[in-house]
Structures are given as structure tokens and as C-alpha cells.
């Protein structure tokens, strides 16, 4: 991977040791990076688990200690915790180092983090679009980022620092693309945040519907609903923070969603089959586009085995 | 499969030759059934394709001809077409034969079909809960029903005829369970119909959102949304009919859904993170139940490879 030669950071600090950070470490190992990785997590239990798993070369008891001499500091904590952490580590950052975050929301994170960072420190926000419904230090795996997108939101960061971090993520297996802050938050509301909220809602409805026993909902969970339950098992803290911090875009897309849903609901009530048929026909197109883009497989076993191209 | 010995019908007629019927034929072949299968589809093009594929032992040009001397007649047409077809074939049905349908909705189908059927013909409605986003005679495959549920809604049909059809479906690889009509329609609205409508809606929103180019929605389609697009590529005619014919249950569940969604939307607007956290934590439980029921896998690669247990 010649384009990833500039990837190497001498010392890397991972702040937060959940699914994302632990996967970063395992992917760095797989890529043969020689960086020395120091890790910190707020909870002593998480730090103990990390030590037991051999996660990072060194686990320390404070964020301040973790970032000491680090050339790259990655904030991998829930979006709501980014600001306080940035404030705590700021005085201990090495001049010229790069600070990055992996939050699913960018504007709020930038607003919360940048004011604390001293002159001469490069802040390069990122958003690796990868995850599972599992969380914690033992949930990570080296291939999590393979062929997934890692969006880079430089927002004015120096080109050299940005290019180096981009190469770092490519070395972890990810595809990278730069994006404007506001646009990032809107795109993610559409392709990720609102779909997650909807899935959470549908599972919640099924869960407390008394005339359909949970047992039946589970037993007969068909494709569609079963996928929803998978999405709705994602980390509650992370997602609470996503919605708290991407409020504007989320509410805007939710508004559009309910507007559309009511139109379809009305068509069902009034028996307007043509409207439904036309709508369902139109949505087939975007699916075809995704298949052509190689973002998913066309295997004829919807809701069962799904294999990445 | 000793429990499936009573499965054998001498002559079987498949009315409609789409994904469901063609998969029934291939599964019958795989099971080594010796029934003679006659097929009919309204469209001449579909009949030609069926002949080319070797689908059924005989393809005929009318439903009346197809059901002649048949011991089992399976109506595999969109829900809205069940009544007219039943009316057309009724005078040609063999006394004592079993008529069944594979509609995703049961009350409306029963109301549309039963009045046409003569005395002495057994009507045993079923609902195989399996499918893909593909449709047509060439979309079928022998393993579609393996380990999937086929709900049997006898609604007063003779026990012997019901047991025989149940054995038939088990021989095709399906698990079977008997259910009351109204309860079936409600359960399916929850685990299948409304989730599909929601997915169609979300994809529709993304599709006509101008500031997010389709290209980006496709390129960055993350887990969650990508699953939605898969669901939203299902057969428009079939789904139009499902919603037209399961109106009551669909609207009831949709009402509950929007009620819940608005509660979460309000929490986002007002910044009530605790409500969101508690809600998201609760939905994790139902997911655990599905895993315990072996209805899905716990593979740590959400949105990517999904393997059936």
C-alpha cells in the first residue's frame, strides 16, 4: 500500500476504548504499524478488560497521561463527552500533534472541541462509517473498517496533517472522502441517524404491543423487522448523543419522513393503490443504484445470508 | 422425513408463477415429490419464461384448465387477484380437492375466496413467511422456505386436509404453525407489513431529498439505510395489495408507530437524553430474545455478512 507510507505516527493515544478504538488498534496491528499505542478509558473496569485483551501497548489511568508525547490523539468517546475530554487533555498535548475524533456528528463536536485546543495542534475530525450492534473493548476486530467509508471533515485543518490522517485510515482498510461539516451532518442524518431512530421506534412499538406477545414477535420476526431489531440493539449512549448533537438535521429529515409516511398512510386509508404502487416502484431504483455501486449484494436470500461484494 | 409422508398430492396446480410458486415447484422437486404440477400465469410472457425454465411439468393457458383434476390448488397471485381467480376456477375444481393461497394477508383473502368455493372443497389458507426483493418466475429457488415459517390459518378447514397441507409445507423445508385469522393479520402488520412501509418511506425521503444527491445516498449508504433499500425493492404490486387488504391492522400499528416516533422526536427537540437512553436500552432486550430464539445470528459485522444459524 504505497499510498499509505506516510501513515506512521510514532505515538498514538486512544481516548475511549470501545468498539471503534479497539478496532483501530487491531487494524493498526494487522497493518503492521509500528506506532506505540497508549489507551485510556474512564471506567477502571474497561481499562482492566483492555489490559486483559492486550489492547494497546500501554493502558494508563488518565487522559492527560495518555496524550503525553502523542503524535496522534484519537477521541473515541460518545459525542457528548468530546468537549470535556478535549478540555482536560489540551494543556498536555504535544505541539504539532494531530487531534482527531470519530464522532458520527461533526458540527457539534467541532464546536465543543476546537475552542480548547492550543495553537499549533492540528484538529482533523473524522467519521468512520462502520460499527456493529456490539459495544465495549472486547467488541473490536481488525477488519471492521475494511472497505467502509471514513469521512474526513478537515474544516480548515492543514493539508499535510489531513493527508497523513487520511493515509492512516486507508492503512486500516477504509476508503476515505473529504466532506463539508454541515453537509456531512445532513447526509448522515439521511443514511444513518434517522434510519436508526425509526428502527428503534418500530422495535419499541412491537415490544409493548400487548396483543402480540413478545414471544410471537420474536418467533415470527421476518426479514425487515429482524433487521430493525439488529439496528435497534446499537449502543444506547452513543445513539442518545448522536440525536442530542445532530438535532437540526435529524429533526429536518424526520419532518420529511413523517410527511411522506402520512401520505402513504392516507393512501392506505383511502384505498389509493396507484399512489402506493408508483411510490414502491420508484424506491426500487435507488436500490438498483446501490447494487451498481457495489455497496451491497444482490444475493436472492433477502434477510438471510448477506455477503459483501 | 417420516412426518411428511402424507404430503403427497397426485396433481398440484400452481396459479400464478412468481417467486413463491416457482420456489414451491423447485422445493417439491428437491423433496422428491412425485406430484404432477400444472402451472398457469396470466401473462403469456411469464408462461413462456416458465416453459423455458422447465418450471412445472405442464404450463397451460387458463386457470380453469390448470385446476382440472388437481388435488391441490395453490393460489399464488397478488392478494387483490385472489377473489376473481377463485371465482373463475370454482366450477372446474375436483370435488374433495384442497384449495390454498399464499397471501400475506388472510382475512381479506378468506372473504374474497371462500364464497366462490363449492361444497366439499377444502379451503386451507397459508402464509409462507419467506421472500426476496426479487419477483417473477426466474426468481425462485428450492431453499427459499428452509427453516422459514409457513403460517397455516385453517379457519374451520377439516383437520385432515389441514394436516396434509401442513406436512406438504414441512416437506418443502418450512416450519409450520396454525394461527387465528385476525391474530395473523395483526402479527404480520407488526413484524412485516409496517416495517416494509417504513422502509419504503425512508428510501423515498432519501430519494427526493435534493441537497443530498442520490449519488451520495448510495455511496455512503450505511448499515440500516442499506437494509431499508433492500426491503424497499420488494415487489410493488404485492405490497400495494398487502396494504390495501390489511388496512385495519396496518393503520392501527402505524398509529402506534407515529405516536412513539413523535415521543422520541419531542425528546430530541427538548434535549431529553434520558428518555432516549432508556428507550434505546429497552429495545436491546427484544433483540436478545431473537438471538436466543435462533432467528438471527450474532455475528459481529452488523450490516455486512449475515449468516443463518
From TrEMBL, chains A, B:
High-level lineage: Bacteria, Pseudomonadati, Pseudomonadota, Alphaproteobacteria, Rhodobacterales
Class of this enzyme: oxidoreductase
Protein name: prephenate dehydrogenase
Signal sequence bounds: none
Family membership: Belongs to the prephenate/arogenate dehydrogenase family.
Listed transmembrane segments: 12-28
Domain Prephenate/arogenate dehydrogenase residue range list: 10-298
Gene Ontology molecular function, alphabetical: NAD+ binding; prephenate dehydrogenase (NAD+) activity; prephenate dehydrogenase (NADP+) activity
Species of origin: Alloyangia pacifica
Pfam families documented for this protein: PDH_C, PDH_N
Any one Gene Ontology BP term: tyrosine biosynthetic process
Amino acid at each position: 500500500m504505497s499510498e499509505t507510507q506516510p501513515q506512521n505516527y510514532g505515538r498514538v493515544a486512544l481516548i475511549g476504548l470501545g468498539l471503534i478504538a479497539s478496532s483501530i488498534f487491531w487494524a493498526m496491528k494487522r497493518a503492521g504499524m509500528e506506532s506505540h499505542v497508549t489507551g485510556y478509558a474512564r471506567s477502571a473496569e474497561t481499562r482492566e478488560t483492555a489490559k486483559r485483551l492486550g489492547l494497546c501497548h500501554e493502558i494508563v489511568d488518565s487522559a492527560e497521561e495518555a496524550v503525553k508525547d502523542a503524535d496522534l490523539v484519537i477521541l473515541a468517546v460518545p459525542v457528548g463527552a468530546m468537549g470535556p475530554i478535549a478540555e482536560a487533555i489540551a494543556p498536555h498535548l504535544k505541539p504539532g500533534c494531530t487531534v482527531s475524533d470519530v464522532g458520527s456528528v461533526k458540527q457539534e463536536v467541532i464546536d465543543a472541541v476546537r475552542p480548547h485546543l492550543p495553537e499549533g495542534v492540528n484538529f482533523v475530525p473524522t467519521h468512520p462509517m462502520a460499527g456493529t450492534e456490539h459495544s465495549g473493548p472486547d467488541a473490536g476486530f481488525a477488519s471492521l473498517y475494511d472497505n467502509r467509508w471514513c469521512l474526513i471533515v478537515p474544516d480548515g485543518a492543514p493539508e499535510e496533517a489531513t493527508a497523513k490522517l487520511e493515509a492512516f485510515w486507508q492503512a486500516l482498510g477504509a476508503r476515505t472522502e473529504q466532506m463539508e461539516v454541515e453537509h456531512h451532518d445532513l447526509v448522515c442524518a439521511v443514511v444513518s441517524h434517522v434510519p436508526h431512530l425509526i428502527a428503534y421506534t418500530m422495535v419499541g412499538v412491537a415490544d409493548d404491543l400487548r396483543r402480540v406477545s413478545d414471544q410471537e414477535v420474536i418467533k415470527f420476526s421476518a426479514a425487515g423487522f429482524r433487521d430493525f431489531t439488529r439496528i435497534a440493539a446499537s449502543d444506547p449512549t452513543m445513539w442518545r448523543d448522536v440525536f442530542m448533537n445532530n438535532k437540526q438535521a435529524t429533526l429536518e429529515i424526520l419532518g420529511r419522513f413523517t410527511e411522506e409516511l402520512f401520505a402513504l398512510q392516507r393512501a392506505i386509508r383511502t384505498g389509493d393503490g396507484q399512489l402506493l404502487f408508483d411510490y414502491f416502484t420508484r424506491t426500487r431504483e435507488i436500490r438498483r443504484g446501490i447494487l451498481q455501486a457495489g455497496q451491497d449484494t444482490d444475493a436472492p436470500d433477502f434477510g438471510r445470508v448477506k455477503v459483501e461484494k
